Amino acid sequence: MSDCEDEDVGTRLAAQLEDDVIREALASGTDLRQYSQSVEKELRQLENVSIKDYINKAQNIATLHHQITECDDILENMQGMLSGFLTHLSSISSEIQSLQEQSTSINVQLSNRKLVHGQLGDFIDHLMVPEVMIHHILNTPVTEDTFLQQLKALNEKSKFIKEQNFRDAHSCQDVQDIVDKLTVKAVSKIREYLLSKIYQFRKPLSNYQIPQNAMIKHRFFFEFLLLHARTIAAEIHDEYVETLSKVYSSYFQSYTKQLWKLQYEEGVTRDDLMGVEDSRSNSFFQKSLKSRGTVFTLGKRDTVLSPTGLTQDIIVPHTAGKNEARYPFEVLFRSQQYALMDNGCREYIFLTEFFMVRDADAMKLFMSVMGKALQHVQKEVCGVVMGCYDSIALYLCVHLIHQYRLLCHKRAVPALDNHWEQLIQMISPRFQKSLKIN
């Protein structure tokens, strides 16, 4: 043997010696040849048993083989069926995709038709003038809710027709004449109604709030006139301004004249003061006080500044005259200014809501209505104040002005700010002068 072969044999022997069975046999001192024959004998016995067992189960194995063959055929058939089904599904998928595309196209067409149908429906509804509208515009009194509802509907139709006329829509020409005639009729009825309410202000001893509340309830009437008959709207505007200006001016002239007659006959005069004589005088302050000790006594005179005193009902000269009641100047001043403030605030709110004006336009309109009354009140107050030596009355009047200005601001009415400022400029210098004289 060569060295390589010896080395190979040695390697194999070393590998065999590592086997657990051989190692166990060597450890027990068993002869390897006998051990090998014993193992071979056992293997043959096992082989014979296996062959015998196989022969005994040959029928079962044959049956199993037959079943496997049948299953194989069935699976082959199922494979063919599944292949056909897969092919069919592929064709169905193409059909579904085609149907989806058709459905999308149909949905788009349906949406377009619905959109057109809705627009055409709205268009026709705006063009169509129903019999109920014609009936209520022509026959229903303007004070009923149905007339107001149909008037708003008529206003919308008129706006729609004007918009379509800008687009040269010839289909509107058929109903243009009907809508115009209904608008003319509505304008006529509204004009008659609003003028009747304005004329109610001219009645003696009338409650101004009743016609004003009725006009506010139907303020859409004036908006309708602005849109469709600006000349009539201007007529209503001017008639209201002229009427209310005369009403307020007449009322405050009469009220102030009667109010001043209720002042104490014994007022504070220059003879009651300790300083320089004031050459000016006034009929309200001509007689000297019988008791000089009461000239500078406050007493309960400041009750006019209390919360209840500020908003107390105004003095009714006719009733007070019957009762021979007399008041200090600040009480009469409070009644006059509270009446002016209450009427002024209510009038400003009415003007902004009914005539739809704001800011500078509202101030201008307010002065058109209340300007004459304010001027007269300021003139009368100035005449009395210039002859007044009662510093307490003047002091209370200044505070009354501040309180009423705050009340106006709480009511969101800035229109009387200038009036309050004018009164302050009249009374403050006189108050300071009376203090110096004292």
Structural summary, described in words:
The protein folds into three domains: 17-56; 131-228, no CATH class; 237-437, no CATH class. The longest helix has 70 residues, at 58-127. Mean pLDDT is 85; it is low at 274-295. It is mostly helical and 438 residues long. Helix 10 packs parallel to helix 14 (359-385). It contains 16 helices and no strands. It starts with a helix and ends with a helix. The protein is elongated, with a radius of gyration of 56 Å. GO terms for molecular function: syntaxin binding. Keywords: Golgi apparatus, Protein transport, Transport. Belongs to the VPS52 family. It is found in: Golgi apparatus, trans-Golgi network. Residues 242-436 form the Vps52 C-terminal domain.
Mean pLDDT: 85
The major pleated sheet works out as: none
User: What is the number of beta strands?
Assistant: 0
Give the count of helical stretches: 16
Order of helices and strands: HHHHHHHHHHHHHHHH
Give the low-confidence spans.
274-295
- The helical percent reads over 70%
Shape: elongated
Terminal Cα span: 159 Å
Family: Belongs to the VPS52 family.
Keywords: Golgi apparatus, Protein transport, Transport
Main location: Golgi
Domain Vps52 coiled-coil: 53-225
Q: Could you name the key traits of this structure?
A:
single chain; 438 residues; mainly alpha; 3 domains; 76% helix; elongated; golgi apparatus
What's the layout of helices and strands?
Elements: H1 3-17, H2 20-28, H3 32-56, H4 58-127, H5 131-139, H6 145-166, H7 173-200, H8 209-217, H9 220-228, H10 230-260, H11 307-310, H12 317-322, H13 329-354, H14 359-385, H15 391-410, H16 417-437
Helix pairs in contact: 5-6, 6-7, 7-8, 7-9, 7-10, 9-10, 10-13, 10-14, 13-14, 13-15, 14-16, 15-16
